[in-house]
Specification:
Elements (H helix, E strand, L loop, with lengths): L3 H5 L9 H13 L1 H4 L6 H21 L7 H20 L18 H9 L1 H5 L13 H5 L1
Helix pairs in contact: 2-4, 2-6, 4-5
Subunit structure: Self-associates forming complexes of several hundred monomers.
Keywords: Transcription, Transcription regulation
Organism: Macrosiphum euphorbiae (potato aphid)
């Protein structure tokens, strides 16, 4: 007898290999203008969903591994972005002890993705902050 909870659980797939992750990033970077659109209206959500379906179709036709649906590809993409954001946020934490090791980009595509989300990771630089000003009297001391 199959319980209702087992029906709702999604089937586990294999972990993404490096080449599968690279393939996903390749298609995501190509469609970056749609995926990273900050508008949140019905039209943009519909465009994003269509784009993820197109990426899933391209991805599954190009890989020999486990076929993935658009939802799992989107989750992996969001996870990669979260890793990139988290590594930068560790730099701004205060406290004692040794610093944690940063996540470093393992590929050129991850670096491209980081450059596209850099503003959301680092924020805007403050030109009026007291820490940014270097006056002559501070330099002479």
């Amino acid at each position: 007898m199959v319980s209702k909870n087992n029906e709702l659980k999604r089937a586990r797939a294999t972990n993404f290999s490096f080449t599968e992750k690279e393939l996903l990033l390749k298609y995501a970077v190509e469609n970056q203008n749609i995926l990273e659109n900050k508008e949140s209206n019905a039209v943009s959500w519909k465009d994003k969903n269509k784009c993820w379906l197109k990426i899933a179709e391209q991805y599954n036709s190009a890989t020999l591994g486990c076929p993935r649906d658009a939802t799992s590809l989107k989750l992996k993409y969001e996870g990669i972005k979260k890793l990139l954001r988290g590594s930068k946020s560790e730099l701004f934490k205060t406290g004692g002890g040794p610093s944690k090791t940063d996540y470093t980009s393992t590929s050129e595509l991850e670096k491209q993705l980081y450059e596209s989300i850099q503003l959301s990771v680092e924020g805007l630089p403050s030109l009026l902050d007291a820490d940014c000003r270097k006056s002559q009297e501070n330099l002479q001391k």
